[in-house]
UniProtKB/TrEMBL annotation:
Domain (Oxidoreductase molybdopterin-binding): residue spans on this chain: 242-374
Name of the featured protein: Molybdopterin-dependent oxidoreductase
Coiled-coil region: none
Domain of life: Bacteria
Keywords: Membrane, Transmembrane, Transmembrane helix
Residues annotated as transmembrane: 20-40, 65-86, 107-131, 137-156, 190-208
C-alpha cells in the first residue's frame, strides 16, 4: 500500500485534531493535578500538611503512578496532534490580528513547554540528569506555563473545537477512497497510547511488570526493592557500619542514644507498606522495626509534634527531612531495621531508616543517625 502526500493531507483535519486534543487535555489535566500532589508532598506547605492523609497507605503510590503514566500517554497524543496541524502552522499571514497573534503565541508556548516537560520528565524517571537545573522546582513552574497556554489555546479555538467535534470524522466524497482513513489514524493513536502505557506502567502496576519492557524500574534490587541512591553514592559506607554508630533521639534537653543491638532489642512491629518513588516506580514490602511514636514517647515527645529526620549522609536536599505530626504519630510509621524479613541492606538504609505511609520515597530517610522532636 502506497500512502501519498495527498493521502496524508486527507488524513489530517480538525476532526482528528479535536478528538486527539480532547484526550491530550485529559492526560495533561491528570498529569498536572497529580504533579501538584507530588510537588507538595516533597515541598509541603502548611495547608497541604493539614489535609494530606496517612490512609490509605498506598495513596501516593497511586497518585504518582498516575502522574508518570499520564505523562507517558501524552507523548503519542502530542505527536499525533502536532502531525495533524503541521501544515497549518505555516499558513499566511504568520502574525495577523490580535486573535491570530494570541493563537500563534499560545501554540508556540504550549508546544515548547509540553516538549520540555515530557522530555525532562522522561529523563527524570530514567535518572538521566543531563540538565543543570534542579528538576522538581523547574518542572513545577513549567507545569503552570503548560496549563496557562492550554487555557488560552482552548479559549481562542473553542468555536473551532466545538464545530469539529460535532462533525463526522470522515469527509463525504463520491470518489473511491483507498488506503488508511482518519478513523485508522485515531485507532493507531489509541494503540500507541495503550502500547506506551503497557511497556512502561509495570514499574507502578505489579501485574504488568513482566511485560513492561521499557519500565525504568523492574522491581529488581537488593531484597526485592529497587534503589535510587546507593550507600557508596551517599558516602555513608564507613559511618553506617561503624561500631560507634548510635541513633540519637532528642526532645529539647532530653536525649537517648541507641546502638544497633539496643534498637533490635526494643519491641518490633512489622508493617506491609509500599515504597513509592517520584520517578513512578513503587513496590510493596514488609518492613520490621520500632514504631516511631514509641521512640518519640521515650524522650517525652507529644503526638502533636513534627519530627525531624537526619541522615548520616552529608547535608543535601533530602538528607534532612521533617515528618509531619500526623505521620509521626501514626502506628504504621516505623524506624525500620529489616526489609522482607532480612536485616536492611546497606543500600536500603542500614542500620535503620524511616518508612511512613503516603510519603514519597525520597523523604523516607535512609541511614538515620538522629531524630529530633520539633518543639
Amino acid at each position: 500500500m502506497t500512502v501519498t502526500t495527498s493521502s496524508f493531507s486527507r488524513l489530517r483535519g480538525t476532526a482528528v485534531t479535536a478528538r486527539v486534543g480532547v484526550w491530550l487535555g485529559v492526560a495533561i489535566t491528570v498529569c498536572f493535578l497529580t504533579g501538584l500532589i507530588s510537588h507538595f508532598s516533597q515541598h509541603p506547605q502548611p495547608w497541604f500538611l493539614a489535609v494530606w492523609p496517612t490512609r490509605p497507605v498506598w495513596l501516593y503510590r497511586v497518585t504518582q503512578g498516575l502522574h508518570v503514566i499520564s505523562g507517558i500517554a501524552a507523548i503519542p497524543l502530542l505527536v499525533v496532534k502536532l502531525w495533524s496541524v503541521w501544515p497549518k502552522l505555516f499558513d499566511r499571514p504568520v502574525i495577523g490580528g490580535i486573535t491570530r497573534l494570541l493563537e500563534r503565541g499560545s501554540i508556540l508556548v504550549l508546544v515548547a513547554a509540553m516538549i520540555f516537560q515530557l522530555s525532562t520528565g522522561l529523563m527524570n524517571i530514567a535518572q538521566w540528569y543531563a540538565f543543570r537545573f534542579f528538576f522538581t522546582t523547574v518542572h513545577y513552574a513549567m507545569a503552570y506555563i503548560v496549563v496557562g497556554a492550554v487555557v488560552v489555546h482552548i479559549a481562542v479555538k473553542l468555536p473551532v473545537i466545538r464545530r469539529a467535534l460535532g462533525e463526522p470524522l470522515e469527509e463525504a466524497t463520491t470518489d473511491a477512497v483507498t488506503g488508511p482513513s482518519r478513523r485508522t489514524v485515531l485507532r493507531g493513536t489509541w494503540l500507541a497510547v495503550g502500547l506506551a502505557t503497557v511497556v512502561t506502567a509495570g514499574q507502578t502496576i505489579p501485574w504488568l511488570r513482566k511485560i513492561s519492557v521499557l519500565a525504568p524500574r523492574s522491581g529488581d534490587g537488593p531484597q526485592g526493592v529497587p534503589i535510587n541512591r546507593s550507600a557508596i553514592a551517599a558516602g555513608v559506607l564507613r559511618s553506617a557500619r561503624s561500631p560507634d554508630y548510635r541513633l540519637t533521639v532528642v526532645n529539647g534537653p532530653t536525649a537517648k542514644s541507641f546502638t544497633v543491638a539496643e534498637l533490635a532489642a526494643l519491641p518490633q512491629t512489622t508493617r506491609s507498606l509500599p515504597i513509592s518513588c517520584v520517578e513512578g516506580w513503587s513496590v510493596n514490602a514488609q518492613w520490621t522495626g520500632i514504631v516511631l511514636a514509641d521512640l518519640v514517647a521515650a524522650v517525652g515527645g507529644t503526638s502533636g509534634a513534627d519530627v525531624r529526620m537526619i541522615s548520616l549522609e552529608p547535608p543535601g536536599p533530602y538528607s534532612r527531612t521533617t515528618l509531619p505530626a500526623r505521620h509521626a504519630r501514626d502506628s504504621q510509621t516505623l524506624i525500620a531495621l529489616k526489609l522482607n524479613g532480612e536485616t536492611l541492606d546497606i543500600d536500603h538504609g542500614y542500620p535503620c531508616r524511616l518508612i511512613a505511609p503516603t510519603r514519597p520515597g525520597v523523604l523516607q530517610t535512609k541511614w538515620l543517625t538522629r531524630i529530633e522532636v520539633v518543639t
